[in-house]
User: Fold these one by one.
Assistant:
Number 1:
Amino acid sequence: MKIVYNLLLISLTLPTFSWTMQEVAARSIIEKANKDLQSISFDVNGVLVEKADTIRVMATALKENPYLIKTLPWALFHCLEIKNQVIRTDIHGVMDWLAERRPEFNRVTKTGQTVKERIIQLACARKRIEGTIDLMKDYHNKGYDIVIATNQDHRTVDYLIKNGTLPNIPYKLIFTYDSVEGKHLKKPDPEYFTEFKKALEANNLSCKRTLYIDDKLENIQAAEKSELKAMEFISPEFLHLDLAQKGLHFDQEMNKIFAIKN
């Protein structure tokens, strides 16, 4: 009877012991990943700040400056050129291009700004994604180097920092679409990530110890093809689970390991 009892006890405790060993192994791998991590790179649009509402921006600009309606036929005729500018640049580049061709965008408004400056202001008046911002500041305070890698113009990022949308912390690197002289590079172009890796190394950041975070799957895939550790952003809550709870998943094997709470 005693033998049966002992066998029963072993059969009940073995799964728990096995689970505990799995948990210890998972913690060991994840904690090692934490020690190996040097820097965290964040995209801007859709990760740190909400994306610009283009329709709202243009509606507000037209309401404040009714004479802009005169430019609509011209804009429709040149829609392909405008679209190309949107693809190649960001709001600063688009407005520079428009202001060179239409005097209406250089007119001074009641606020003392030009129409061009006002539209840029409206486009940059985006809400912070507070959960991600808090997470970024927390990891900066823990000693990780913080990097920004975005398709935005450097002027847009500077503007977002100046108006307080992005926190004014000592970023180790801000890599924008115009960071490489003479080139306009945007994700998911492989050359973007080639140059981004060069910029990391130039700033004494190891590519192998940098985690890249983006909300677009095609950018994540392009980053991984460039041998960067990448994580798709879904929400601040998921990022909190993956990072703050030590769930730093760097490769396919580690992606199988769920986030373990402290």
Number 2:
Amino acid sequence: MKIKRKSFSLIFCILRLLPDIFRRSHTLNMNPFLMKSLSTAFIVSIFLLTMSVQSLPAQDTGSGLDFLNIGPSSSILSLGEGTSAVPTGSSSFYMNPALLSYELESGLDVNYTLWISNVQSQFVAVHGKKNRFTFGAGVYSTRSDDFEARNQPGPPSGSFSISYLAVSGGLSYKLGPVSLGATAHYLREEIFQLRANGYAINLGSAVRFLNERVTLGLSLNNVGEMEELDIEETPLPSVLKAGLSARMIEFVTPGENDFPVLMTLFTDWTTPLNNYSTGDFAAENSNDGYLTFGTIADLAGIFEFRGAYKFGPTERPFSTGLGISVEPLTFNYAFVPFSTGYGSAHSFGIQYTF
């Protein structure tokens, strides 16, 4: 197949950054042998992702499984899905499974999203930690009802639904600042009386440095296949994602009461790896990659304001959201307007840490 050269250019750019990353880590008096092992592990993970990209088959038809690239949780949606280097709790293994290792506690994540055209999505996931391993599992479903069925011109003979389901399990392993992860999805699609099953795999890697203030992430998502749905199988929307996040600004507001503020900046590059028409209502060039920039403002660990903007072929370039933490609960909300006038998406979520 024809793989876009920019996918490999992005990988090479990350490889060029690694020597400086680990040289800086060396100044923090980390064990040289450990750092050499970690750098080898991270480079090997990038090599494996690259080999996986080369083995992907070409596709020329539209994908009905685009929900796999739509953030399942409110926190991911509010960040424009630019989260290959931003941990988001239990939902992390949908975008980059390696990020599960950077969660400090075990947790539960429950979400409901009202998409445009009355499409509804539900998502629930849980993750737990044991030594160097972090395990995650989740269920993500989306459904749209009341499609009119006709066997011939005239009044409808009835109605039917379209639904998609992903039942997933993820695992990550952390060694020093480096984390590697994988997620396996069982997929099911139902359209009218037609049904098909399939699978998809996500592979991810991440590394933290500069006192864990900077995170690099790389993931290969939605590689797999589906059974035939009537005549042919539905192609999967495989993507390569790479991102960077940095806790850049930290200060305390003046006054009698300390009010710490932490600003995190992030950027994420997403490249589709097969030719399909996305469900993002993009008019043209929908197979081009896109760049996401965003920020997270954490106010005293209680309020978290989030926002992101996508540059590329998308009709939902802007997203924003809010998180309110009352330990052990966090209440999340995301707002995603469509520039085409189709409406806006609203997502609500609750996270519980234990």
Number 3:
Amino acid sequence: MSQPVVQCFRVAETAFSMILLLALAGCGGTAQINNPSHSTMKAGNWSITAKSSAETYIVGGNIQQSNSSLVGQMRVLGPCESPTSNFDPSVAAPLSGAVDGTTFTLTVGPTPSGTVIRMKLSGSGTSLNNMAGTFTLEKEGCGPDQGTVEANIVSVPKGHYLGKGIGTSGDSNVSVDLDWPQQAGPADASGYIPLNVNLSYKNSSCSANTPVNGYLAGSIVDIVFVEGDGPNPVIFAFSGLLDPQANTVLKGTYQTLSGGSQPACSGDQGTIELDSTADL
């Protein structure tokens, strides 16, 4: 075969290879290499329960995903944190993270007390609403710790939640009727969802009823009840956790911080379970 003919074959072979590469690129051949697919979390209100052999930590708040990056603001409850009687946006801890394939790597903290929780969660698919994995916790004077994690998205409650208190002090016949007339809106800048609910509180000798404000972060609910505009109102506080699976049970603690114009309301304190299916 003559030299010019060989050169023509080589030119044709090179041209064919270039066309094949372009065709593969057009079919997504190179796109899969440069932009690997990854799972996605459903944006919204997430509850994360981290358990070690000795302790349980509750993390809740709003999580958003953009491509492979995750951000959020979270409330952290646990033995390393200072308890608060109601929500304070200053106690929110930043969440950052990323997803690689089906593995989500999240870091929560530091909290105001210095806690940092690192998690690895697994989930395959899009718009995931639950995942599981492992965690480690670091805090000087409290930890280190490690264990397993379950994460679930939690919808905002709606309807009546009724319950009777188990008093540790004060009146032993406390009942609470908590009514969410409509589902709340999106989370605010602190990562908490503001709640506007109606609460009826009564014991053997007093009763109070008023619209109240509260916050939801994951499964964490905090509500402060204030009846009366004067200098001496009735003040009732509730802090609890929703069942992140059923969302029909709310367990927590209550305390009357001030009896106000109704001294018989003062001193009530205990635990309570509010159930949306209860009939008291």
